[in-house]
Amino acid sequence: MLPTEEKENKMREKRFLQRRTTICVIIIAVVFFGFAVKLFKWQIIDGAQYKKLATTSTAYTVTTDATRGEILDCNGEGLAVNRTSYRIAIDKLFMKPEKLDKTVLSLIQLMNTRDEKWINVLPIKLTSDNKFKFKDSMADEIKTLKSSDYLNLKASDSADKCVKLLTERYELEKVKNKTDLINLISVHYNMELTAYSNTNPYIFAKNISSDMVAIVSENMQGVSGVEIQTFLTRNSPNGSLAPHVVGALGSISQEEYEAKQKEGKDYGFNDSIGKFGVESAFEDELRGVGGERLVQKDSDGNVTKVATSVDAQPGHTVYLTLDSKLQKVANESLEKQIKAAKANGVSESLRKGAGCGEDCETGAVVMLDVKDFSVLAAASYPSYNLNKYSNYDDYYISLAEDKNAPLYDRAFNGSFAPGSVFKPCVACAALQEGIINSNTTFECTKKYTFYPSNPVACMGYHSYISLNSAITQSCNYYFAETGRLLGIDTMYLYAEKFGLGEKTGLEIAESTGILAGRDSTTWQEGNTVQAAIGQSDNSFTPVQLAAYAATIANDGTRLKTHIVKEIRDYERKKTVYKYNTKKPEKLNTVGVSKGNLNLVQDAMRNVVASPMGTANYIFGNYKIPVAAKTGTAENAGSDHTVFICYAPFDKPKVAIGVVLEHGKYGKYSMNVAKSLLDAYFNN
Question: Residue 33 has what pLDDT?
Fold first, then answer.
């Protein structure tokens, strides 16, 4: 290429770059000019307007409640359902701060006209002699009040000191009337606890009557910030039917709130949460998802716009395996037999002295479906009413202070010495390990003294007795010797397989129980013979006993016990979850041959069918063939009476475990089981 031509090419390239640069500069200048014009319009021409809008309008997002799902029995009968109630709310978005205290005192005065309760969680009261005093049975609340999060006081500091600091904290020094002062402190304190704010209204009172709705509506006209709200509350059509199973709702605690926040769950300080039972175990399914509404206020604090931005989604409906009819029978029979055992014990103790059942006041029963180990009934006595428990502080306090602990779920969490109902397990283990066979006999001399420090007394002289007769007549001597030969380690390994001292798999809280040898803190060789007859440290729950009986009935296959049948959407149309009864969840097999199991099953049938059987006098002529084992467990006070059974013997459908604490005589526990069998097979 010639030098001249190369020079011209370079010149053309230079002019091209100059034109491109010029075009880019012009484009950028136009863009910046446009921005400048826009900024000039925003800041100079329309600046005042936008400034006024920014300073006079504030938007808040307020969460709305979701409808909680309901809890039903296996037939769709309501156990925990929703009903419309009324509450009084104080909304900070609408409430003028300078009018708050006057409004609160007016509301309290109106509530007092009908003797209705408002929410008062302050653990301090004004006594009749005009002194401040801590409330009884509120130790946890007092501890919270004195904690570093609030007053930062010593545990020994007085109620007066708390009131003084709270008065200063909430700027209530001008309030001279002590009643007004303590009431205002209570409301302010609970507002602080529940994070009262523009996005979180304060619930002043719940479940108010229709009369109170009318009174508040009439007297609070023109008072902004006070609102009568309709909301859904939990109600149980029969609050005494299954309170321990269904569970209850309660105000969310600080610990629960923080835990839910960590889980990414959107809870507010005013929210309720399941505290125990199904309400707690299935909280995520039942709760639903809250909605949102947008509230806009001007600079004077006036609400200018309210609009729903997100609709709330209701929770799911949970169907349990419980049958309300069977549950009712379980409750009534348990109460009847406990009272009968006590009455008989009181009468006999006048002649024989203590230990006749005069101290029988508590017990439990569980009935399972053998095909899938679903819970058909689970009763604990004494019991309580869920509707009262949820609404009245005094009622709850009376339950908490009752020496018989009605709040305690004995069916799933009570742990009791099983007595002789443990013997079928020992028999299965000894047969499978070759320690005994169906023809093995031991001579019962009434008192077994192989270990002098652990003698075992038998109910009679059985002489030479075989396995079948030993179970039929419940010979302690036979099983003490069998247990000694078997050894504690092998014994508890088989007991574990039968689910004794093991959780059954329930979806709600249950106790593990205690298995002698495995869970014992100290052990002596002689303790083995006591363990073999269901004593020593052995302690099992009624639901474990029912599952144990069902496992024997099920030829040694132990299934997972469950209490939830199905979960549907709130409208009960779409199934979210359904338990597969055709393929129930198997936990394990006990490792005992069918032949050996049959030997034990036949012996349990003879407990009922044989004239020598310990349950024959109750079930000997029963229309349905039953297999069973009776038990009497020694303890402080009168003996416990324990009973397990399954029926029909040839094609088992149901299994039952019963414990009457201090019931003394087996007929009372057997009658509870008989009532349930009557109800099941009559249906």
Answer: 67
| Residue 666 near residue 614, CB atoms below 8 Å | yes
Q: What radius of gyration do the chain's Cα atoms show?
A: 36
Backbone φ and ψ of 69, nearest 5°: -65, 160
Residue range 510-537: mean pLDDT, rounded: 95
Q: What's the pLDDT tens digit per position in 159-171?
A: 999 999 999 999 9
Out of 28-37, 118-127, 549-558, least confident range:
28-37
Residue 368 near residue 375, CB atoms below 8 Å: yes
- The whole-number pLDDT of residue 137 equals 77
SS3 of 111-157: the string is HHHCCCCCCCCCCEEECCCCCEEECCCCHHHHHHHHCCCCCCCCCCC
- Model pTM? 0.80
- Predicted pLDDT at 56: 46
500 φ, ψ to 5°? Answer: -85, 130
Token pair recorded at residue 344: 């008989």
Burial class of residue 214 (count of CB atoms within 10 Å of its CB; 0-12, 13-18, 19+)? exposed
DSSP assignment, residue 42?
I
If you average pLDDT over residues 70-86, what whole number do you get?
A: 94
Closest CA to 363 of 577, 572, 72, 670: 670
CA distances to 80, 127, 388 from 395, rounded to whole Å, are 19, 21, 7
pLDDT in tens, 572-581: 999 999 999 9
Contacts of 486 (CB under 8 A, 6+ apart): 426, 429, 430, 433, 435, 532
CB 608 within 8 A of CB 666: no
Pairing of the two strands 317-320 and 71-72: parallel
CB 580 within 8 Å of CB 541: no
Give Cα 125 distance to the centre of its chain. 31
Range list of H helices, 220-253: 243-246
E-assigned strand segments in 574-622: 575-578, 586-589
pLDDT at 50 over 50: no
Q: Which residues does 596 contact at the CB level (< 8 Å), separation at least 6?
A: 428, 431, 432
Averaged pLDDT of the chain: 90
Q: Copy the structure tokens of residue 524.
A: 């002596």
Distance CA 622, CA 670 (A): 12
Give the domain 337-682 fold.
Beta-lactamase (3.40.710)
Going from N- to C-terminal start, the domains of the chain cover: 89-234, 337-682
| Nearest Cα to Cα of residue 459 among 525, 467, 472, 468 | 472
Q: What residues pair up with 319 in beta bridges, in sequence order?
A: 72, 566
Indicate the Cα dihedral angle 328, 330, 331, 333, nearest 10°. Answer: 110
According to the 3-state scheme, what is the secondary structure of 387-452? HHHHHCHHHHHHHHHCCCCCCCCCCCCCCECCHHHHHHHHHHHHHHCCCCCCCCEEEECCEECCCC
Q: How far is residue 373's CA from residue 587's CA, in Å, rounded to a whole number?
A: 11
